[in-house]
Structure formats: structure tokens, C-alpha cells
Amino acid sequence: MPSIQGSEGEDSEAPGLWPGSFTLTFVTDLMKQNLQKSLLLEVRDLTIHFFTEEGVVRAVENVSFEIYPGEVLGLVGESGCGKSVTGLSLLRLIPIPPGRIVSGDILFDGRSLLPLEEKEMEKVRGNDISMIFQEPMTSLNPVFTIGDQIMEAVILHQGLDKTEARKRAIEMLDRVKIPSPEKRIDSYPHQLSGGMRQRAMIAMALSCQPKLLIADEPTTALDVTIQAQVLQLLKEIQMEMGMSVMLITHDLGVVSEIADRVAVMYAGRIFEYGPIEAIFGKMRNPYTRGLMSSIPQLAEKKGRLNPIPGQVPDPMNLPAGCKFHPRCYMMIEDCKKGEPMFQVNGDHFSRCIRWKECC
Amino acid sequence: MVQNNFLIQVRDLKKYFYKEGFFSTDKKPIRAVDGISFSIRKGETLGLVGESGCGKTTAGKSILRLIEPTSGQVLFKGQDILGLHRGVLRALRLRMQFIFQDPYESLNPRMKVEEIVGEGLEVHRIARGKEKSRRVSELLKKVGLHPQDTQRYPHEFSGGQRQRIGIARAISLNPELIVADEPVSALDVSIQAQILNLLMDLRDQLGLTYLFISHDLRVVKYISDRIAVMYMGKIVEMGSSEDLFKRPLHPYTQVLLKAIPNLDLSQKRERPFLKEEHRPLPSGQECLFQARCPHSREKCQTEEPVLLDEGEDHFVACHFVS
Asked: Which of A16, A165, A199, A209 has its CA 20 to 30 A from that of B218?
């Protein structure tokens, strides 16, 4: 996390005002050198703006995170927080113009994706990094069978011939637990139910055995019972193949099911970042806290919910300082001055100057 | 049971859709709502839960006759509204209102907030002119918007604010019953909680009775006194929300409850188990859930279970109540 400005261990003394009393740049540099080899993906200070007629939309601002091999990173946030744009940018799928990656870097397997030629990038897409989307009906082509669509990817990327590709496609459909795959392979998307379609999408995305799967709201359009089954399938396959997953969702419940680490986004920034146990058990950010207490708990007796007041800010007109301060119950004057990221401990970070008192 | 204790009683309500088309030879109807019965007491909130396509929205709309049901009875304060003429029904509509799921599609983009919220007042000749404006401002204040917002258009508001406009419209005529169809599903979680709080406050302030339709069990449990679970056009289980969550009796309800993602990491449970993902259409007199049911036995394939009282106002339609 190179964007840390002030940071210190949990047990150290109270800091002065930010920027923190000392900076861990040196230590993090050392850590980075050690980790560099084992990192699968590193996003560094990524900033993405959209230049529209109405003005500049600052969709993603100084976002940094990393994904290790074989782990599931959950990227959570409300609509418009920049989570999908972040996901798309990893495959360089942001429409340019109006979008532009203003600064930052995306390193995949140690190689920067940003300077790659379009031809090179095509080899990465679907092969090294795959993506599945919320609504499988709109991301599958309705005039081709699901078999055709799975085969297309393996023929293109892996150079298999048609018979081999068909065999691989049947294998993949079987792997995502679609019953009688040798028959289903010739079905058109509309002949499948929503859950089956999403399974077919997963089969397609995994057919080239990518190292990283980006799943953007993969279960949001599905019914709860189907949602649970698809999530379980994703987790199983991820463990079997040892692949990494970046799970983008608005639903903290979905994240709690399968993620190893979580990044909570708000207004284009990461607000809290850490292992799932830390985020769910020992959160250190009032926004994360607010999100959690907005969800009705099954065990609790009835009473009023504690929602976050107000609205998500207009991305063209963000407040100064901490972007959450107008809605925050812990707001003090200093919140309007800056938005530093603090290291809570180890790999747990929070963008809140009052993280010690929270939550 | 005293009859007038109930604000609304629904008896054997059915809504079948027939496939239309010149070449269509298929005369089998789609049974969207297939004989549901329930009652809601005054001031009570009944949650109607089910997955997409189970008929919950059709049921809600049929009850207010926003679509015409195929058969059945809907008694509003003892009066069957299904047989009523339009004129009489129109007067009764004052007492029953609907809140829609999508705050983006249910507000006319060319109308100002004052026109949207005040339309009912004008149509029913309750208020016009200055009096209407005054009332609209008051309604906006009640739902947490600025009274000055009356001259703005829907696109100037966020999703949550739009849903507040929809709610202001629904309460403008002082209704007794509100059918709320997935009123928070399209909203972000933090905004969902605001709207849920608002709905509960209004219920207490105005003595409203809700039929709350949703697919989200957490939300339904939170707001409802009683819950009815729908599956393929039928109610399979109904009971007080505490009881239903404590001892779900129908296998489908059990699967639904287990499927709710848990925020408490220390409580990881077994995953739900369904034999089939799709819902096969019934071929004869079998239980509608049997093809997917983990406990299905022979009897389930030959005989359809009926909704029976299992005590404490808890009804379930299953041959083998566990």
C-alpha cells in the first residue's frame, strides 16, 4: 500500500495530527521487495477519470491493492463507488474516451499492463485474466450455443482444434455442475435458467484456466437459493484450480461467504482494506461500520436500523478532505482537511483519522 | 375470530395468464397465483416472500385490482372488492395504495414532484391550487424531503429520494392499506435502511397496514409481524416472523433461510441443498416443490399437500412436517 501517509502499529502511542508522526515507506519498501515475487496482481495508485461534457467524473482515485495467488479479494461498495470501473480497468476495458487512466500502474505477474499493445492485451484477456458479469443473459451471445462460445475462447487462446475444444467445453460444463453437459453444450442461452447461464459463463471464463478471475456482481441477478450454490461453486473451483478471484459486489453477505481479504470502496477510494476477519470483526472505519449496521440482522430484536444518513456524494462535486465526512457520525474539523490512510496493524488499513476510536 | 378485526382478507385468489397468439395451440394457463388465502389485521404488516417468478407481485397487484384476478375473493373491511364497479372501486382506492419497486420507472419524468405527489389529491377532488401545494410540502416533509422540492423533476433526485417521493404519493390520500412491492430492492444498503426506518415510522404515525412484498428475507423479517412464503403461485408456509425463523417447517423455507449470507463469520453453516435448480412445471397432482425437495418421498409425487395449521398460527403445506 504505497499510498499510506501516516501509519503506526496498533500498540504504539497516539499520533499527532496527520500526516502521521512517522512514515513506514522504508518498511513497506522492504516488504514489497519480499512480496513482489509472490504477488499476482498489484494495483498502484490507480486514478481513473471520465471526461464528460458536464465535467470530470473522478471515478477512481489513488486506489492501491494487491492480489496474491490463490486468494479471493472482495471489493465492496455502494453503486457509483468505482468498484466496477476498477475491475474493468484491470482488463483495460474502460471506454477511452471519455475515460482515461490518469495515473498509476497495474502490474500482473510483475508486468505492467498499461503500456501493452492492444494485440498483447488481447492475449491477456480471457487467457490470463477472465471476467464474469452480473447479468449472464446480456453477456452471452443469444445466437450462438454455449458450446460455441466456450470453444471460441479455447480455440483462440490455447490453439486447440474443434474436437479437442468441444471436449474441453464439455469438461468445463461438467466442472461447473451443469447436468448432462454433452447435451447442454448445444443449448442456446435462452434455453437455460438464470443459475445455469451463470454457470455457463463461469465455464467459459475458466476454460483457459486463467490465473485471475474478475467476478463483477456474479450472483446479484440470481435468487438467494441459487446465489448460495453459485458462490459455493466459485469457491470450490477457485480452491481446486488455485486461481485468484477478485469479487466485486455491493453485498457484504456475499463477501463474507467466500472472500479472504476485503477492500471497502467509497467515492472512488479504498476506505478500509484488510483480512476478512479484521473487516468483519475489528473494523476500524466508520463507513464500514455504517454499511454493516444498515443490514438488518436476523438474530437481533426489532428496533430502528442505524442507517448512514444522507446520500452518496456526486462524483463531480466531491467534498473536501475525507469524502465521507458529511455523512459521518464521528466527523471533526480535521476531517475536512485531508484523507490519509492509516495502517491499523499488519495488513489492515483504514482511511480515517479517528480509526483508533472507531468502532 | 371476529370478522372486522381484519382489514383485508384474501380467499382463494387466482390469477392465470393465457398464452396469446394466433398460432398458439397451448391452452394450458400459466398459474401465476394459484389459490392463495391470507388475512391482514389492522395495523399489522404481512411480509410476502418468494423468489423471482413465484407470483408475489402478481398477488399484490391482483389484490388492489391493478390487474384483474381470475377468481377468488378480496374482502376489504368485509366488502368484496373484486365484484365492485369502477366508480365504487375508485372511491375505495383512496384507502389502498401501492409502492413500486423501481423508483426510476414509477415516476413520470415530465411531471414535477408537486404534480406527482398531488395528482391523487386533485383527481379525488380533495385539494387543488394553493391548498394542494401546502399539502404536498407537508407530505414531503413527512417523508424526509425538503418542502421546497415541489418544483423539481424526478431526475434531479437520487434513488432513495425518488423512493421517498413514491412513498409521499402513496400516503397522500391517507390510505389504510399499502401494498409495497420490493420498495427497497433497487436501493443501496445504506439507503435501504433509511427507507425501512421511514416505512416503519409512517406505519406507527399513520396507523398503516402493510403488505410487504420482497425476496429479501432479512428485510422481510425486520419489518413484518407475520410472513407468508410463496412458491410457484402458492403459499407454502405462513406464521409469525419470530416463529417462522425459529422453526421453519417447510423444506423450501428451510433452504431459503439457510441461503441467507451470514455476516457473522463465526457462524458458518451448512450450505442449502436443492436437488434441482430449475423449477419443473407440475405434471399432475404432485407437490410443487417435490422435484427439488431434499426430503421428497412417494406420497409427494401423487398428492399435493394443503396448507394446514401446525399450532400458534403457523401454517405449512407439507406432508412430512419435520
From this structure: A199
